[in-house]
Amino acid sequence: MENKQKRMDALTKFYLPCAADTQMDRYLKNGAGDGVDTALLIEIDYKQFMSEEELDNSMMVAEAAYSLTKIFDKTDLFVRVGPAAFFVYAVGYLNEEDMERKLKQLIKQYHQLNCEHAEHMQKHMHVGVYHVQKETGFMELLHKASTCYEEALHTHVLFCMDTDQPYPLNFPKPFATSKINTKLADMEFAADIMYEMYDGKDMIETIPLILKKICAYFHTQYIYEIEREDDAYKVLYECRPESMLVENENLNTLPLFVGDNYQNCFMYEDVLACNQLSDMFHYDSFVALREKIRGARSLMQGKLQENRAFIGYICMIDCEKERIWTSQEIATFFLLIKIINTAILQMRMLRQHHQKSSQDTLTKAWNLKKFYQKAVENMSVGNQKKYALITMDIKNFKYINSEYGYAYGDRILVAIVEILNLYMEDEECFARIDADIFILLLNYEDIEKLKQRLNLLIKKIERYNIRYDLITNISCMLGIYLINDITMDIAQMIDYANTARKSIKDSHESCIAFYNGKLEEKFIREHRLSSIMRQSLKNHEFIVFYQPKVNIYTNQCVGVEALVRWRRQDGNMIYPSEFIPLFEKNHFIIDLDMYVLEQVCIQINTWIKQGKKPLPVSVNISRVDLKNNDIVKQIVEICDTYQINRSLIELEITESAFLENESIAIERSKELKAEGFLLSIDDFGTGFSSLSLLKDLPMDVLKLDHTFFQTQMNKREKIILTNIIRMAKQLDMTIVSEGIETRQHVAFLKTIGCEIAQGFYYARPNEINQLDLWGNFEGEDVS
After folding, report:
1. Residue 629: which residues within 8 A CB-CB, separation 6 or more?
2. What's the rounded Cα separation, in Å, for the pair 194 and 211?
3. How far is CA 588 from the centre of its chain?
4. Strand 309-318 vs strand 222-228: parallel, antiparallel, or unpaired?
C-alpha cells in the first residue's frame, strides 16, 4: 500500500508535489477542460518577517493554508509548492469578480486567525489564475498558473488571469518537512505529568486521571488510548465529555487489519495534528468517520510503540471548534505521549504476565486456575440459578494428531474455543485444561433444555469439519455433573463430570452422560482393578480356559478357543465382562493378550510332548492390539520362542475392530496372514459392513455371532444366513457358529450347511485338565 503520510505535508495537511500528479488525474478524468475549472498559484512573501528555514515550520503558513480550506471547497485539490506557496485546483469557473470576492474572504479569514499579519498578507500576496483547457497533468497546470503568478508579481497586482507571457517555471520551490521541536514543549507541565504518573500506586487508576488532566491543559473534551490486543485494537482508557451520555460500543474496538494498516500514517510523523476533521480524511477515511462519530472538529494523535513496533495511539479531540495546533502544543503532546507510552508498556507487561498465568497459550482460553476463580465468582453472583459442570473431549484426538499432524489438531482446538466463546452466556465460563479436554460451567432451567443446548453445541463442533473441509469427522464426549451444592470443591465436581465422560469413552459418535452414584461405584471398582492388574499378571492370577469347537456330524473336537478368566488368590472369580472393557480402555489388554498367547503356546508344546495331535487354538486379538505398530512382531516372537507351527494359531478379530478403524485393521490382518497365521472374524453379523469385510479381508474362519440363534428365525432371515454361509464356503472359509445351546440349534445348523459349533450344548469353557478334547461330544441341552 502506498503510504499516505509520504504524500502529505505535515504542517498544512496539503498534498506534496510528488503526490499531486496522481490526485490531479482524478480531476482531469472527470471532464475538466475548455475553461470549466480553475487552477490557482498563491504565494505570500514572508521573508521580511523570518528566514526560509523558519518559514518552513511557521504558524503563519499553517494559518494561511487553513484559511484557504475555508474559502475553497473541501473537494478542491490543495498542494503546497513552496515555503509559503500553494497550488489550488478549484472545481468550477472563477471569473474576476469571483476571484476578488474569494481573496477578500481569504484575507478576512486570515485576519480572524492572525490580525497582526493580515495586512501584510494583503500587501505581499500574489495570485496566478488559469482556466483549465486541455492540460494533462499537474506540472503542466502549475506552469500555466505560475506564468499568471509571475505576471501579477511583475505588474504589482493582487492577481492575474490567463496570461501567455513567457516566464520561467520557478515552482515547486524546495521546503523542509515539518519536524517536532521538543525544545518548544511545556517542560513544566510534562514534568508534572511524569511525577504524577510514577507517584501513583495504581497505574490503572492513574492513567485515566492523567488523560483527564491533559484534556484540561489543552482545553479539549475527549481523549482515549487504543492498543493492539490479540483479536483487535481496543480502547483501554478514555476520558469522555459528560454530554456524551450514550457510549457507542462499536467505537471501543478497531479491526486488526484496519489498525495494522493505519500504522502507515505514523511512518513519517509521530504526531498527526489535524486542524479540522477534513484533514483526517487524507490519512484514513474509516478512522476519520469514527472520529466524526465521536464529535471531533479537530484532533491530535500520537503513536504508541513497543520495541519500535506500532501498538496503538492516543487520540485527543476538540469537540467544540476547529483549531490550528501550535508548534508548542504539538511538541508538548509529543512529549506527553512518550511519558504515557512508558507507563503503558509496564501495564502491557503486567497484562501479558497475567494472561500467561491465566490463559492457555495456544487457544487463549482460560486455564484451570482461572476457571476455578471465575466459576466460584459466577456461582456466587448467580446463587439462585442452577449450574452444571461439564467436561468435554474430542474422540480419538491422539489419533488425529498422529495421523494428520499437530498443526491440524491445533486448528481444531482453536476452532472449538471460537465456538465456545460465542456459546457462553452471562455468568458462564469455560477453560481448556489439558490437550483436547475442556471444562464448562453452564446455568440451566431444566435437564431437558440443558440436553438440547449441549446437543446444539455438539452439532456446532461437528459442523466445523464440513465448513472448513477437514479430513476427519469430529466427535465430542461430554460428562455432566449437576451441581447441588455450590460450596463443593470444584475439583470434586470435575472428578464427577470426568467419571460420567469416561463411562461413554467407547461410544463411536458424539455422546453425553450425566453423573450418578452408580457411575462412581463403577469408577472406584475400575480404579481398584487397575491398581492390582499388573501384579495379578505376575502372580499368574489370569487363567486360560478352553472351549471346544465340535464337528456337528462326527461329534469330534476340531479346535478350541482360548478364553481368559481372572481368579484372585482368595478364590474369587472376576469375569471378562468386568475387566476386558477396562483393560481395553487402559491398554493393559495388550499385555494380557500376549500373556494368553504365550500360555497357549506352552499348552500346544505340552500336547506334543504327551504325543497327542495338537489342536488349532484360536486366540482373541483386541482392537487395541491392532493399533499397536509392533503387534505382529510381538506375536511372531512369542510363537518362534516356543517353536509353534503358525497354522496351529488362529487369531480372532472382532468385526467391531474393523468398523472402528478399518484401514489399520485390514493392514494388520494382511501382515499376520503373510506370517502364516490363521485369521477369523469373530462376532460376525453384529456390525454394519459384514459383507464388504468378506470381500476385502484374507480371512480363514467366519464365526457367526450367538445372537443369530437366540430367537426363532423367519424364512427371510434363514435365506440370508444360508446364502452368507454358502458365499463364505465359496471363498474357502470355515464357518463356526457360537452360542449353540440346544439340539434344535444343531438341527438348524445342519439345514443351513454349517458344520462346526461352539457353545454350552457341547461344553462350557473350562481349564484344560477338566476337558477330554479327544473324546466324543454328544451334546446336552442347556436347561
Report:
1. none
2. 12
3. 36
4. antiparallel
Lowest-confidence region among 116-120, 167-171, 295-299, 743-747:
116-120
- Give the model's pLDDT for residue 407: 85
Q: What is the phi/psi pair of residue 649, to 5°?
A: -110, 120
Coil, helix or strand at residue 432: strand
Q: Which residues contact 674 (CB under 8 A, 6 or more apart)?
A: none
This prediction's pTM: 0.52
Distance (Å, rounded) from C-alpha 524 to C-alpha 528?
Answer: 6
Give the SS3 label for residue 227: strand
What does the CA dihedral 320, 213, 63, 169 come to, rounded to 10 degrees?
-120
Q: How far apart are CA 767 and CA 88, in angstroms?
A: 108
Task: Find the length of the chain.
Answer: 783
Q: Which three cell numbers stand for residue 154?
A: 511583475
Residues sharing a CB contact under 8 Å with residue 443, sequence separation 6 or more, in sequence order: 382, 385, 386, 387, 388, 425, 427, 428
Report the alpha-carbon angle 87-89-95, nearest 5.
Answer: 105
Residue 728: pLDDT over 90: no
What is the band of 244 on the pLDDT scale with cuts at 50, 70, 90? Answer: low
Sequence-ordered alpha helix ranges (H) in 219-359: 256-262, 277-281, 285-293, 327-358
- Using pLDDT thresholds of 50, 70 and 90, give the confidence band for residue 470: low
Please calculate the CA angle 131-135-140 and round it to the nearest 5 degrees: 95
pLDDT above 60 for 55: no
Angle between helices 187-199 and 203-218 (to 10 degrees): 160
Beta carbons within 8 Å of 688's beta carbon, 6+ residues apart: 659
What's the grid cell of residue 554?
462326527
655, containing H or E segment = helix 655-660
List the one residue out of 468, 460, 467, 435 whose CA is nearest residue 510.
460
Instruction: Kindly list the distances between the CA atom of residue 543 and the CA atoms of 537, 565, 618, in Å, as whole numbers in the listed order.
Output: 10, 5, 16
- From 530, 442, 445, 525, select the one nearest 478 (Cα to Cα): 442
Q: Which amino acid is at 757?
A: A
DSSP secondary structure string for all residues of 541-577: -EEEEEEEEEETTT-BEEEEEEEEEEE-TTS-EE-HH
Residue 311, H or E segment: strand 309-318
- Give the three-state DSSP class for 318: strand
**Residue given cell 505535508 in the structure block:** 9
* Bridge pairing between strands 557-567 and 617-621: parallel
Most confident of 427-441, 495-509, 682-696, 703-717: 427-441
CB-based burial label for 222 (10 Å; 0-12, 13-18, 19+): buried
Round to whole Å and give the CA distance between 171 and 176: 15
Please report the DSSP string for 464-488 in residue order.
HHHHTT-SS---EEEEEEE-S-TTS
Strand partners, 512: 478
Q: Omega before 765 cis (within 30°)?
A: no
Helices 447-467, 406-423: crossing angle, 10 deg rounding: 140
Nearest to 493 by CA among 483, 501, 502, 503: 483
Look up residue 297 and give its three cell numbers: 472538529
Question: Position of cell 492498543?
Answer: 227
Distances (CA, A) of 747 to 167, 531, 709, 752, 755: 123, 47, 12, 9, 11
C-alpha cell at 23: 490526485
3-state secondary structure of 92: coil
Cα dihedral: 497, 500, 505, 507 (round 10): -120
> Could you give the 3-state DSSP secondary structure of residue 413?
helix
Q: Which helix (H) or strand (E) holds 38?
A: strand 38-44
Q: 3-state DSSP call for residue 649?
A: strand
Q: Which residue has the cell 506352552?
A: 602
Q: How far is CA 29 from the centre of its chain?
A: 46
With CA atoms as reference, report the closest residue to 679 among 620, 722, 731, 631. Answer: 620
* Per-residue cell: 781: 441341552
Local confidence band at 336 (pLDDT 50, 70, 90 cut-offs): very high
